[in-house]
Amino acid sequence: MYDYLIYSRLKKHARTLKSFHIPGHKARGEFKSKFPDASIDVTELSYSDNLQCPDGVIAEAQRDIAKILGAAASYITTDGSSSGVYAMAYCASKRGNKIIVFRNSHQSVWNACRLFGLEPLIVQGPEKDGVLQPPDKELIERLVSADANISAVLATSPDYYGNIAPLSEYREVLTKYNRLLLVDGAHGAHLAFGKSKGYAGRFADMWVDGAHKTLPALTQGALININNDDLIPSAEEALGLFRTTSPNYPIMASVEYGVKFLANNSKYIYRAKTAVEQFKKDVGNEFTFYPSDDWTKLLIDFKPFGISPDKVLERLEKKGLYAEFSDGRYILFYLSPMTEAADLNVLKKRLTSIVGNRKLKGTYKEKPPVPSGDRSYSFQYALRKQSEWVELDDAVGRMCAKNAGLAPPCIPVVVTGEMVTLAAVKTLSQAKSVFGLKDGKICVVKKW
Q: pLDDT digit string (tens) for 318-331?
């Protein structure tokens, strides 16, 4: 059994705490009544250690986490997975100026390429059931074998749809050519438990776990993990640059808690997976599911019903049920080891009632195909050019100067350096929530 070191230390001192330090709430008055755990929200003190250079309770907790995850080193971050993605890209930039990235990479990957002058070589697999698949190893090998400036592959696995990339095959190729395998595993922290073959830590030189996404941890809690000892100095240098200097102690404590809770209580994973399997069995004749590799990504396809998933989502929310997102075809119900059968039973009843509503029939609109990208110039080239904002309809055939995409899942529809296509404009125009647009306009390279 693992002890919850950071949380225990914070609670021990909270009982006698007299605050003459930041934060300003001082765990007093109305603030404490509204935020009962305010007393464990502290700063770097003699007992609480320092995330920037830990040698006490944080260091011990990180060693425990690394042992549980099978990593050479693990680092807690309170900035979400993004600072971990920056750290991975920083390490890659030391070895070359190009990096292979998936088309459905999170916006933080593209931001990292911009920060470190990396040219992203975009790869994608085929489209299946309206969703991009991970690229195969042959494509990866074809690229790395032909270009010594490619330092790494930064794979997204699992993605928002639960697709798990063939990491073992990538590992084989990248070992052969002495390149790095970096994995944005933000959606897969739970895969470290339950003997999953798809966990990034089994294959990656360095990877990120978004603890807050699928573990019992607070929002913004994440982990950066390393298997390749050679990367530790650069990774620690990167973390010193990109992590906040004011880390949130409750978040840190929750990350340690989340990892150790599942290490101590594997029954929760079994119980949740069993509940999901029963849900699918109960409604399998009525609903169509996206064939996800990851049980925590429950995606229901509303195309067969002829019903708009956006309208289904609106009705669910009126009943107090909130899903992760609708992409125009699927609704993603994002689960975790803490999901209970009772919750899924409520969801089953609500969904069954909604899809039986005749007024919703015929509301489905065909989702635009996944844009494949029309790349005429490089990412870095486009960044260097002067830009302007134009109406979406006027952007077709123009070069994109700033990524624009859907949020969630915060992945680009059109990438900097690509030509804006009619399909991309259609996708962005129909989306409920986007990034990279301003007042309905998109940023393109200025005409001369």
A: 999 999 999 999 99
For residue 186, which of 164, 157, 227, 161 has the smallest C-alpha distance? 157
Q: Is the peptide bond before 368 cis (omega within 30 degrees of 0)?
A: no
The angle formed by the CA atoms of residues 103, 104 and 110, to the nearest 5 degrees, is 75
Residues of the chain falling short of pLDDT 50: none
> Rounded distance, CA 169 to CA 29, Å?
57
Show Cβ contacts of residue 372 under 8 Å, excluding neighbours closer than 6 positions.
Answer: 103, 124
CA distances from 334 to 43, 292, 344, 362 (A): 33, 12, 11, 26
Place of tokens 């944005």: 184
Which of 139, 165, 159 minimizes the C-alpha distance to 150? 139
Long-range own/partner contacts, residues 129-133 (CB < 8 A, 24 or more apart): 129/290, 129/291, 129/301, 130/303, 130/329, 130/330, 130/367, 130/370, 131/161, 131/163, 131/290, 131/330, 131/370, 132/103, 132/104, 132/163, 132/370, 133/163
Report how far residue 61's alpha carbon sits from residue 256's, in angstroms, rounded to the nearest whole number: 7
Q: pLDDT (tens digit, 9 = 90+) per residue, 45-67? A: 999 999 999 999 999 999 999 99
Sign for the pseudo-dihedral over CA of 63, 66, 72, 77: negative
